[in-house]
Design a protein that fits this description.
single chain; alpha+beta; YefM-like fold; three-stranded mixed beta sheet; 24% helix
């Protein structure tokens, strides 16, 4: 994991993207105290979001999808 200041990150953006493509994590620090504000990770390492709840139907209904079923949020909402 590499930590880099915002200004240096901006100046070396393409180089940093190559590092991420190679599997490295880049942490971006900001300000005099070098507060860590963001981490750039390879997309493959992105954690999958928590399952959606059925809300008020959670106690009276259930749903299951095949593992191969895929739909984006935009498609689900009809956007």
């Amino acid at each position: 994991m590499q930590t880099i200041q915002v200004g240096e990150f901006k100046a070396r953006f393409s180089e940093m993207m190559d590092c991420v493509r190679e599997g490295q994590t880049i942490v971006v620090a900001y300000g005099r105290n070098q507060e860590k504000v963001a981490a750039l990770i390879p997309y493959a390492q992105l954690a999958v979001g928590a399952p959606r709840s059925l809300g008020t139907l959670a106690k009276v209904a259930s749903v299951a999808f095949d593992q191969e079923f895929e739909i984006t949020d935009a498609e689900l909402l009809g956007a």
